[in-house]
Design goal:
The chain is an all-beta fold. About 0% of the residues lie in helices and about 50% in strands. Strands 1-9-8-3-4-5 form a six-stranded mixed beta sheet, with no helix packed on it. The chain has a three-stranded antiparallel beta sheet with strand order 2-7-6, with no helix packed on it. One of its GO terms (biological process) is negative regulation of interleukin-2 production. It comes from Climacteris rufus (rufous treecreeper).
């Protein structure tokens, strides 16, 4: 077990988000990484996504172009980062590393990770207050920030409780800011988070 790849059996990624498929080893004297490749198997066919050799990194599947990368200057780390995950990215991904030893023999190891891409509803948002908190002197500036998690993109809307309990839409965006607060700005504010 001189050279061994370690990875994980399954990774769940969020649609439109990004995920890393771990594939690491401990570099060992006398062994040089010759090639590294990542392939994906779905619908019983296997295709190579990325291949790294002496001439650099080659993305062989166009649907992954500009969306996948492997760390550059980190020996022993062959992990694959996939960005902007799409639903069809679900499948079995195999990391294969071939080393050449000092006596010119080749050693091959591989590790396979199942990737599942899921759509995640936006969570109930939380509101964070600015430095001064929720009680601010008149004339002061303040901001409220709305945060939620889930499949991006997440859109935010701010409301204020109006007369008769009606909500008035104030603005879209994660932040609500005031340069100079007036007593009339006191009230109940709501934030809504929404994704697809």
């Amino acid at each position: 077990a001189l050279l061994d790849l370690s990875g994980v059996h399954q990774v769940t990624g969020t649609w439109m988000g990004s995920t890393t498929l771990p594939c690491t080893y401990v570099p060992s004297e006398g062994f040089t990484q010759q090639t590294l490749s990542w392939s994906v198997e779905r619908d019983s066919s296997t295709s190579t996504i990325l291949r790294r050799d002496d001439s650099g990194d080659h993305i062989l599947l166009s649907k992954f172009r500009d969306r996948v990368s492997v760390p550059k200057d980190s020996p022993g780390n062959a992990s694959l980062l996939i960005e902007n995950l799409e639903m069809p990215d679900s499948g079995h991904y195999t990391c294969q590393v071939i080393w050449r030893s000092t006596n010119n023999s080749l050693i091959t190891r591989e590790v396979t990770t199942a990737v599942k891409v899921v759509k995640v509803a936006a969570t109930k948002p939380i509101i964070r207050a600015g430095e001064l908190g929720l009680t601010v002197p008149a004339g002061g500036s303040s901001r409220l920030t709305c945060e939620a998690s889930g499949s991006p993109p997440i859109s935010y809307r701010w409301f204020r409780s109006g007369p008769g309990g009606k909500a008035q839409l104030l603005r879209r965006g994660a932040e609500l800011a005031w340069d100079s607060l007036r007593p009339s700005d006191s009230g109940l504010y709501f934030c809504e988070a929404q994704n697809r």
